[in-house]
Design goal:
Helices cover about 45% and strands about 15% of the residues. With about 150 residues, it is of the alpha+beta class. The protein has a single domain, classed as Sufe protein. Chain: A (Alpha-Beta Complex), CATH 3.90.1010. Strand 1 and strand 2 form a beta hairpin. One of its GO terms (biological process) is iron-sulfur cluster assembly. InterPro entries: NIF_FeS_clus_asmbl_NifU_N. One of its GO terms (molecular function) is iron-sulfur cluster binding.
Length: about 150
């Protein structure tokens, strides 16, 4: 088994951030109707604007190893960083996953997210990998709206 498969399985078996927690300012529930994957994700942010800090990302997910691993990777990569960093990380993940295998990803930008680079070659699985990220961007939007 290669390193990337091991990373995905590790995040699936030992997910970072799993379990819904309080406090939170934004929550989003997303479903992938193609395969039935589901995620409810909460985000807790302190401060305002792009310099605000993503204090916590918590989630409850039901789905395939790619979906759960992606949520775990998201929580690991953005928790403790700025909102600007979280948005950059999301864009780098989205770019890699929608590249049809042309963008291998940059470990400096997305950390363990590079393990999901192979998913880009399977369009049906891209939605699995992006599900938690869609929930995160929605919850982050809500959280920032709550601060205004």
């Amino acid at each position: 088994m290669d390193l990337y498969q091991e990373l995905i399985l590790d995040h699936y078996k030992n997910p970072v951030g799993h379990g819904l927690r309080e406090p939170f300012e934004g929550e989003s529930h997303q479903v992938n109707p193609t395969c039935g994957d589901e995620v409810t994700l909460r985000v807790h942010v302190s401060g305002e604007g792009e310099d605000a800090v993503v204090e916590d990302v918590s989630y409850d997910s039901m789905g395939c190893s790619i979906s759960v691993a992606s949520a775990s990777i998201l929580a690991e990569e953005v928790t403790g960083g700025s909102v600007a960093h979280a948005r950059e990380t999301y864009e780098a993940m989205r770019r890699m996953l929608t590249s049809k295998g042309q963008d291998p990803g940059d470990e400096d930008e997305i950390g363990d997210g590079v393990a999901l680079a192979g998913v880009a070659k399977y369009p049906a699985r891209v939605k699995c990998a992006l599900l938690s990220w869609a929930a995160f961007t929605d919850a982050l939007y809500q959280a920032q709206g709550a601060k205004q």
